[in-house]
Design goal:
Blueprint lengths: L1 H10 L2 H9 L10 H14 L3 H19 L16 H16 L14
Helix pairs in contact: 1-3, 3-4, 4-5
Length: 114
């Protein structure tokens, strides 16, 4: 997901602001994508507050699915698979980090969010 976040850093989040406005949400919510696509993956890679990062990551994926991909929920992709397959896999990985934590290989281990 950090690749998508870097792309949004370079090119901006204007299209996400448009989606937020279209759904009746404030446009500044679009900047929350940076938490889910840049900060949370870095936290996961470092093993810092892994449960919190997994929750943010999964929430970001769920939000993208609900706001931007609702038309594709029951559609196949060009190869016959589910159109939302990768996004759902990312979301499930985030949920698994939330429930499992980081284990013994992490930067921090003393907090309940690790």
């Amino acid at each position: 997901m950090s690749v998508y976040g870097v792309n949004k850093l370079i090119h901006g989040v204007g299209f996400i602001e448009d989606i937020m406005i279209m759904h009746g949400l404030p446009s500044f919510f679009a900047y929350g994508v940076f938490a889910g696509e840049i900060i949370a993956p870095i936290m996961l890679m470092l093993g810092f507050r892994t449960r919190l990062a997994g929750l943010i990551f999964a929430a970001n994926c769920f939000t993208a699915m609900v706001l931007a991909q609702t038309a594709n929920i029951f559609k196949p992709n060009d190869f016959g698979g589910w159109a939302l397959e990768l996004l759902v896999i990312y979301m499930l990985v985030g949920i698994s980090f939330f429930f499992a934590g980081s284990g013994k290989y992490s930067v921090s281990t003393a907090n309940k969010w690790d």
